[in-house]
Amino acid sequence: GFEVVASRSGKTVQVAEGQTIVDALAGVGIKVEISCEQGVCGTCLCDVLEGEPDHRDVYLTDDEKAANDQILVCCSRAKSKKLVLDI
Ligand code: FES
User: Which of 9, 22, 32, 33 has CA atoms 20 to 30 A from the CA of 41?
Assistant: First the structure.
């Protein structure tokens, strides 16, 4: 697993294996708008302030993925131990 910090509230959540970032955030009352839940539509796009995403979507371009400053939280995960998101 890894840790996600929701910077606007300062809340930190652990994302377990087999759990999505969206699910983990919902557990502490942070709702992210979602639609496809498969990394296709772009609805759940969040800005990344710190950390390295493990991109699992097909929405961002390769360049956007390499920039590591956006993530689709319905399906993508983290390569770093911690991700700080602008949510
Ligand atoms: Fe569609 Fe995340 S909900 S990309």
Answer: 9
Q: Are 86 and 50 in contact (CB under 8 A)?
A: no
Cα 6 to chain centroid, rounded: 10
Convert 56-73 to b/e letters by CB count within 10 Å (16 or more is b). Answer: ebebbeeeebeebebbbb
pTM (2 d.p.): 0.96
Residue 69's pLDDT band (boundaries 50, 70, 90)? very high
Residue 78 CA from chain centroid, whole number? 8
Number of C-alpha atoms within 13 angstroms, CB side, residue 78?
Answer: 25
Q: Which of 20, 37, 65 to mutate to test ligand 1, by most ligand atoms within 8 A of the CB atom?
A: 37
